[in-house]
Task: structure prediction
Amino acid sequence: MKVSKLWLDKFFDNALPNAEALAEALTFHAFEIDGVEKVGESDSPKDWVLDVKVTPNRGHDCLSHRGIAKELSAILKIPLANDPFLDKSDLSKQTAEVTVDIHRTALCKRYIAGYIKGVAVGPSPEWLKQRLAAIGQRSINSVVDATNFVMFNTGQPLHAFDAGKLGSLSLGVRAAQDGEVMIALDKKSYTLKDSMLVITAGDVPVGIAGVKGGMPAAIDESTKDIVIESANFDGVSVRKTAAALKLRTDASTRFEQVISPELAAFGMQSVVELIQKLAGGELAGFVDAYPEPQKPMYANVTVEKVNKILGTQLTGADISDVFVRLGLPYKEQDGVFEVTVPFERLELVIAEDLVEEVARIVGYDKIPAAPLPAYGRQPEINKNFAAAEMAREELVQQGYSEVFTSVFADKGERMVLNKVDSVRPYLRDSLVPGLTEALAKNKPNKDLLGLKEIKLFEIGTVWRDGAESVMLGTVTEKQKASEKTLAPADASAYGALPLSTATRFEHFSKYPYIVRDIAMWTSSTDNEQQVQQTIQKEAGPLAVKVSLFDAFSKEGRTSLAYRIVFQSFDRTLTEAEVNQIMAKLSLILVDKGFVIR
Amino acid sequence: MGFTFAEGPLLESEWYNFDALNFPKDHPVRDMQDTFYIKDMPEHVLRTHTSNVQVRYMEEQIKKGIQPPYRAVSMGKVFRNESTDMGHEAEFFQIEALVVGTDITLANLKGTLALFFEKIFQGSVEIRFRPSFFAFTEPSVEIDMRLTGEHIPEKLRNKWMEMGGAGMVHPNVLKNAGIDPKKYQGFAFGFGIDRLAMLRWGIDDIRYMHSADLRFINQF
Result:
């Protein structure tokens, strides 16, 4: 979620430390930060925006500036001066002009309607435009901007209807009828299904619950009276609806994380105040349909439990400090902390949840590193792994290389439903095609690799005859690819395969190479290696590999034949330039007394 | 150290890949993993992590009448439905460890990770945790590692690197495996093996791993 630094500052008496410091505080105590961006001129930025990766367990409370401000308050030990959740919300002024009927209470825990008459809709003030622009939101008009601002401020999605265009002030929340059509605020027409929830006015759909409002009751400059919705919709239902309609909105992403129905009251209170400030109007009153209010939530943890999980030696005072900073009211008795969970912190349920709160606020750097305690059991030998290791050992000794090819194939028994790239949509039923392809791919590089023959094996999973099994497949230039089931090995210990001695990966050239052979008579005093080094040196840097491929002696002389592979890292070599290098090399070798054959 | 090599299938039931690991159904938590589903096999997925082995292994032990302590390690192919580039592959390798006992702590996790990386990178290692979220651990952490010492290549020396995720096994996961979470607790960690290899040998493109190209493979 995009979070504005200036926006956060408003929750505190004094401006917060700079954006980098905030990013660091959040990174080590709350959330990953995907980036920090300046807003406005780069030499005199107006604001900084942090892209906070709110984890799914904190979607209840932290997809809002208030949530992030609260976190920073706890981490940096700076009290929150202006907390919109602190004062009890007041929805006592009621109106009989609007009615709300929730038909599906399982999917709508609360629906508050607020009725304001006589607003004057106009452009938003500069400060509001700036706040919204900083987090990538377009300003529309004062009323719509107010609902958006409060959503990004508190986390409660809100919607404003033009009461005059609603047709009826009898609002309902019901399942859509199959095939019912609604034109949404994006001017697109959506065909609904009975699994979706709609908001109705006089039984006509005026909004897709928790996802998007309808076009016909959109707010514009001519709007006089408005009905504001602050509601709580079921997360799973909203998620499925948004997915089915391919319409994910800032509202739907908040509902699908599940938010507290208590939040709706605070959202309503804030937005009514802001709208009246920006667009005037008179509050006619509220209707609050809230059949089953959220029950108080408690969670317990002991000092002992905290230390037993973390391996720390924290005291009751350390834990108290964390709870005070996080604004978690608690009672403590004999080392037991009973926390009254704030309404928005729906994820705090079990002791371990509170242990995590302690750990991250105290700081994970305070967790010591300790070795594992003594362990009496012997590890069991995994027979499949033992078989794989034995096969590896044997084949590597025979000069095979191990490859991994993809499990995705052009054909097979099992098909993947949703492959993004949609190529090779099946799960392989054999290792043979992959190995055959791998052989063909490696064959042209044989000289470069310095191999006499390409020999490959793969130990891999296939799906065949309705089962998943692990196969051992081999292929060489002489023998077609074949495979067999890797039978479990009855081993009592794993073999000791040698570890790789490689230190760094060396890049290889993408360009084709050219091969030349050179053979010469040498005297008995010449040694193969010295000759090879001479060739390597004189053939120059384009000679990437020099290897002896033939040697024989006759009448006191030894014939040595070398294969030279030429390749460049940045271009395709031409025959002509390699011929030139070879001609030069021959002259040098002759000069050194060798007889070129 | 007593770790047993444990296995599980690649084509896995949603129960072992998600539900048993405390992933709520129809929840954005499942979006974190871009999952491959299989035609005509409802409630089955290509496993998104080696963590499917956790509950399988513990269940097997309970069936044999063996209560914790447990130490298990598993590794193998895992899948994410995403487009591939230098840093991402739809199929890659993971290694995972699970330790359960009466007294296994987050401090033991830190100590074990340091040892693991010291052996892999053959150097002195510092471990740093950052808060995170995984459905199957509570608390959950991201693991950063820093290598120190003269012999460590300069590109890696003294730099914090993100390695993977870890945490204390969620009580619901133990419960789902038939273990009493009031009596036992433990930790689990998991990383991409490809990424470990890339750091260890300075490999800059994960796609080499499945290339079957001996110009790459025969270097090791």
